[in-house]
Amino acid sequence: MRAVDRPPGRVRALRSGARLYGRCLGAHLRASLEYEVDFWLMIFAAVLYQFVPLVFIGAVFARVPDLDGWTMPEVVLITSLAVLAEGVGSLLYEGTWQLPWTVNQGELDYLLVRPYPVVLQIASSRIGLNGAGNLLTGTIMFAWGLGNCDLDLTPFGALTLLVLVTSGVLVKFAIVVTATSASFWLVGANVNLAVSLHNVGDLARYPLTVYHGGLRLVLTVLLPFGFVSFYPVAAVVRPGTYWWATVVTPLVAGLCVLLTLRVVRAGLRRYESAGA
Predict the structure, then answer these.
(1) Contacts for 119-123: CB closer than 8 Å, 24+ residues apart
(2) Letter string b/e over residues 25-56, b meaning 16 or more CB atoms within 10 A of that residue's CB
(3) How many Å from the N-terminal Cα to the C-terminal Cα in the chain?
(4) pTM here?
């Protein structure tokens, strides 16, 4: 192959990183599947856990025709995106939750000497099988909500929805990584901050318009969980009002990822190994 035909170094690095990432996740998946009973119990537990909010939604709409103008299929669609993002997180970057322990125990030293991005090593260090149950439940909810929302999706509309859903997943990823990266500055191996922020994200399972203006601002700007679920759905089912979310959601995802990379780099520069 001529030199001019070789892919640029950055492209080769991305391909290599993606391949290693997939192999790491595959290894953890194969190891987890050795225990079939645990696998099916995790699937069942995840489905049951996500079923509870559906019961709540059903109970609410049994009493009222809509929720601040949002119908039951629309609310289910919003909830489904939050569930799907959670499922993707459990399957693809569950290891991120181990970052505080890794930093506190000095295990990060081993990762720093390997020719592979630290963030990818940490993210692929573990796999959450409950994510499969979340993806199953979220997909069923998504299909039901989409089929009952009186939408006439064109191919372009379907592509737009896919971009918005992917952007929401990236926003969730960025928030989780940023929250766990606080361990570079905080003493201890706990993930209380990350778990607390994750719980706040559950508020975005419902239309943000039902909340006070201050809380809507928090879920849109400070902790942009709204772009994980609410705004992608609003951009599709209410294009006349939320047309701007079609453009803003991918931009927010890009900004969140860039900010997360800066936070991680700053944390790695500050890292002084265990006992510092």
Answers:
(1) 119/177, 119/261, 119/264, 120/17, 120/20, 120/21, 121/24, 122/95, 122/96, 122/98, 123/21, 123/92, 123/93, 123/94, 123/95, 123/96, 123/177
(2) beebeeebeeeeeebeebbeebbeebeebbee
(3) 50
(4) 0.86
Q: Are 72 and 61 a contacting pair, CB within 8 Å?
A: yes
User: In angstroms, what CA-CA distances link 30 with 27, 35, 56, 61, 127?
Assistant: 5, 10, 36, 42, 10
Residue type, 38: D
Residue of 182, 147, 167, 190 whose CA lies nearest to 263: 182
105's tokens: 């125990």
The per-residue pLDDT for range 206-238, each reduced to its tens digit, is 999 999 989 999 999 999 999 999 999 999 999
* Structure token pair of residue 111: 């990762």
